Amino acid sequence: MVRALLIAALLALAGCEDGPDEHLDLLGENLFTGALSKDGDLVVVGAVEGGIWVFERGVKTHELTHSEDEAALESASISPDSRRIATASGRRWHVWSTESGRELAAGELDSLIRTIAVDNFGRVLVGTLNGGYWLDGDSGLQLSSTTTRAVALDGKRLMLGNDDGLVTLWPVGARRPSHQWQLSDQVEVVALEGEQGFAAARNAPARLLAIGDSAVVGELAQEKSYYPLPITATAARIVKDGVWVGNTQRRAAFWSFDNLLEPAQVWRMPVRKGSNPGSARVVAFSRDGQAIQALTGTGHLATLVRK
Asked: Is-contact 277 14, C-beta < 8 A?
């Protein structure tokens, strides 16, 4: 009886979800990680089998070449103006020109890099197993001393989330954070846009954070899982009237700031034939509020249109 009710509940839930309105297969295979520009035109992907490619409007334009002794791509980022790309593998990081594919800068840290973000000037914010670092030319500033898996920037501010559940916001060049928030578990995703912040910790409700007076504060109702693994956010993008959130259960959701009890709309990402369903996680979103692009772990660029 319980099993029948569970199946019925899952079917009802699936019936409320949409598939992507369109989806473009970029690689023909799963990707390890990637990044998506704000306007959705530029995509960087690192394939599971190796190789890092740049696509513009769905057309492959460059291959970015790491040295042979570097590990698979761990993280990638596109600058807010789409002119710079940052990639990280193992302990090494690189900054590239979007237009030419030429390497502009590179460096190595003393710890494995977990995440990276790049600004319009090629400066990088890096999260490693030993903490978070702001690297500006030949100078560097350590902003966290705990494993840092989530970073974001907008050119004037830096946001980091670490494994102690601490989220901090730093003005560029500052020696102290301007804001900090405590979450209940290790932070997996952070985002900022204007006066609005967002952070999601492992197996805990995602939170909307106030950076300014006009921001919305609250928790997104936590999705429940019928599987052994907890549901964890994998990507987020803040827009004018809400926030897009992707998770490990193949779902992308738009949450309106007017209702934090349930998402306004939910999409389920398709799985590549023969792949583990977890590969269909959302890796990144573009920023258009009405019709956005979502990059998935299956190597697809999905178009999601709000009703």
From this structure: no
Question: Is residue 230 within 8 Å of residue 203, measured between CB atoms?
Answer: yes
Residue ranges of domains in the chain: 19-305
Q: pLDDT tens for residues 7-42?
A: 334 334 444 578 887 888 888 888 889 999 999 999
In this structure, what DSSP letter does residue 20 have?
Answer: P
Q: What average pLDDT does the structure give for the chain?
A: 88
Dist CA 51 CA 91 (whole Å): 17
> What is the chain's alpha carbon radius of gyration, rounded to the nearest angstrom?
19
Pick the CATH number of 19-305 from 1.20.1290.10, 3.30.700.20, 1.20.1300.10, 2.130.10.10: 2.130.10.10
Q: How far apart are CA 36 and CA 252, in angstroms?
A: 15
State pLDDT tens for residues 184-224. Answer: 999 999 999 999 999 999 888 899 999 999 999 999 987 66
Q: Is the dihedral of CA 161, 166, 169, 172 positive or negative?
A: negative
* Residue 111 exposed, middle or buried by CB count within 10 Å (0-12, 13-18, 19+): middle
Give the tokens for residue 57: 């409007």
Instruction: Please state, in angstroms and rounded to a whole number, the distance separating the CA atoms of residues 105 and 93.
Output: 8
